Amino acid sequence: MSTQRYDAKMTSQLLFRLLPFQILLAVVGSINSIVSTLFASNAVGMTSMSAVGLYQPFTMVFNALGTILVGGSTIMCGRYMGQNQLQKMQNIFSLNITCSILIGLCAALVLAGMSMFDLSGWIAKDPEVRAAFNQYVLGQAIGIIPLILGTQLSAFLLVENKNSLTTIASLVYIVCNLLLNFLFVQVLKMQAFGLALASSVGLWIFLGVQAGYFFSKKAHLRMLVRPNDWKELKNIFVIGVPGAASFLYQTLRGIIVNSMMTTYVGTAGLSAFAAANTLLGFAWAVPTGMLAVSRMLMSISIGEEDRRTLTDVMRNMFRRFIPLMCAIVVVLIILAEPLTRLYYRDPSNPVYMMTVWGFRLLPLCMPLSIISMHFVCYGQASNKQVLVHVLSIVDGVIGVVSFMLVFMPILSKTSVYAAQNTVYWASFFNGVCTTLVVIIYAWICNKKCPKNVEELMVIPKDFGVDEADRMDLTLHDMQEVVQIAEGIQQFCLAKGVDEKRSYLAGLFMEEMAGNVVKHGFTKDKKQHAIDGRVVYKDGAVILRIKDDCVPFDPGERQKIVDPEDPTKNFGVRMIYKIASAVQYQNMLGLNALTIHI
Predict the structure, then answer these.
(1) What is the CATH number of domain 467-596?
(2) Nearest C-alpha neighbor of 400 from the set 436, 440, 364, 431
(3) Distance between CA atoms of residues 450 and 452, nearest Å
(4) Pick from 593, 521, 522, 523: which is nearest to 558 by CA?
(5) Are residues 332 and 366 in contact, defined by beta-carbon separation less than 8 angstroms?
(6) pTM
């Protein structure tokens, strides 16, 4: 039994247990562009490839809209989860779904109007590319609603610990997208419209697979016909907009970058950048998945005012996520030419080497981007709006565009290859800038150079309870459980708690932790541990027990009375009768029980 240090192993295990599902979900988001570009380059031609590339800024806009809702909603749900307020989580869920449908419908109408009335001249000036672009935009309009709504449901399935359903939906989408592209593009010769239509139909299927769960009785989160607190919508946007602003900035950046490549490199540069950037969407799924699981755990930690878990999440990012990403980057660099040959096979064509260097240089920014993404998310959850806005604008526009404006005109006089590589090096320079912003922000706030993770995060001193007012326990077996009561009683007495409540605190923790060992540890062959905590705050004693065993709701068990054995479940019934409040929830695959005495 440990009473000195929270067992950070549970946090790390949870992060890596959820990570594969979130990576796969993020991969699905890139499948659309990847499959489209492969069919465009191999079955349709360079014109459609350019149309796909020109559409990427629009993709960033819709990602931004989805990120606003996902970021704001999941952070608020995490806070309410940490505070055991399920009804408020229901309200956030309902507001999110309602807004997702409305935003998706409006965006679809805008795209359809732009296509049908030929309003894309400001984007595609070449008549042939413009015609292909209009077709592609019309096909994409059909899938905007499931694109935005599907992302939201995936985030809430994470809360429900139904990651397997997202995995199934993702695999179904991948298969359908490939088959539909073959049918629409290869067989029916529907050109650019077929490319977009295939992904749109696939997204509707993806949405349908996920949505079914929320109409079942198993779902904790249910759609309210009338959300009971519309004021929360403002909070969702206030929290979500700063983090999503980077996508809007990236849209502006995309327009500027496309314009500069057209001027200094030409169509070959656009095609190379589109190919490399799109296929690397698979690799970008890793940082995106990392952020998804970290966001939820950071939000819950802030809701619980749990300083140690909050810093453990960020330490995990530095110690595990970044090294893992560096290894992936090395693999991508080694595979640069094989990946290029998926799109272009003629080494004598300028677009071939431009694409090769894209695969060699663009991945270099990924490890640094993980830092920026996590600190933007942390800034959203902890209301550090200045940090979020500065990081977003530097990452979105300033870092890349400033580098290109300085070096591309100069290097273009040397060769088109040097000019094109400027785009790739600009991304790495951007990562360096955002990392420096994080350090400088902490330096200014702390008035000294940050020397550890807490100082780098600038966690307020009054966040959470003082170390002296809390007792952390990590329990591995029944022998450790039976030893904790006296220690908890002494802790409470030392804080001035009366003898009765001090005794009950130790007894309640022993009873509930013992139930977890008895009913949870024995249900599978996995190794488990109980993360226990005793907190003295404002004269009250709060017990918190968290474990990663099968769902076990003591509230349901205390209702069961056995006529043949009246003493059965007596301890649980006693706790529910005496305690001022008992709250249980199972989210993210963790049982969390909070007892107020």
Answers:
(1) 3.30.565.10
(2) 431
(3) 6
(4) 593
(5) no
(6) 0.67
Strand partners, 544: 533, 594
What is the spatial distance between Cα 120 and Cα 131, in angstroms, rounded to a whole number? 9
Nearest to 309 by CA among 157, 472, 158, 162: 472
Q: What is the DSSP secondary-structure string of 399-448?
A: HHHHHHHHHHHHHTTT-HHHHHHHHHHHHHHHHHHHHHHHHHHHHHHHTS
Q: Which residues pair with 531 in a beta bridge?
A: 474, 546
> Under DSSP, is residue 543 helix (H, G, I), strand (E, B) or coil?
strand
550-560 CB burial, b ≥16 within 10 A, e <16:
eebebeeebee
Give the list of residues 6+ apart from residue 395 with CB closer than 8 angstroms, or none: 246, 249, 250, 369, 372, 376, 430, 433, 434
**CB neighbour list of residue 46: distance below 8 Å, 6 or more residues apart:** 267, 271
Question: How far does the chain reach from its first CA to its final CA, in angstroms?
Answer: 23
The Cα–Cα gap between 215 and 222 comes to 8
Q: 541: which strand partners?
A: 536
Residue with tokens 């790495």: 428
Render each residue's pLDDT in the chain as its tens digit; 597 residues. 444 444 556 666 666 666 776 676 666 666 666 666 667 666 566 666 667 767 877 877 887 788 888 878 887 887 787 676 778 888 888 899 999 999 999 999 999 998 888 887 777 777 777 888 888 889 999 999 999 998 899 888 877 878 778 888 888 988 888 899 889 988 888 888 888 899 899 999 999 999 989 888 878 787 776 776 788 888 888 877 766 666 677 778 888 888 888 889 888 888 888 888 878 877 888 888 888 778 777 877 777 777 878 888 899 899 989 999 999 999 999 999 999 998 888 899 999 999 999 999 999 999 999 999 999 889 887 888 889 889 988 988 899 999 999 999 999 899 989 999 999 999 999 999 999 999 999 999 999 999 999 899 998 877 777 777 888 888 888 888 888 888 888 999 988 888 888 888 888 888 888 888 887 887 777 778 888 888 888 788 888 888 878 777 776 665 544 444 445 566 777 788 888 878 777 666 677 788 888
Instruction: Map out the domains of the chain as residue ranges.
Output: 8-456, 467-596
Residue 258, CB half-sphere, CA atoms under 13 Å: how many?
22
E strands along 278-432, which residues?
Answer: none
How far, in Å, are 41, 135, 267 from residue 416 at the CA level?
21, 30, 11
Contact 493/502 with Cβ under 8 angstroms? yes
Task: Give Cα 41 distance to the centre of its chain.
Answer: 31
Instruction: Considering only CA atoms, give the Rg of the chain.
Output: 26
Distance (Å) of CA 354 to CA 262, 338, 346, 424: 14, 14, 12, 10
Name the residue among 597, 463, 591 with its Cα closest to residue 81.
591
Element (H, E) at 530: strand 530-537
Can you tell me the distance from the alpha carbon of 329 to that of 367, in angstroms, rounded to the nearest whole number?
A: 8
d(CA 429, CA 412): 19
Half-sphere exposure of 590 (CA within 13 A, CB side): 26
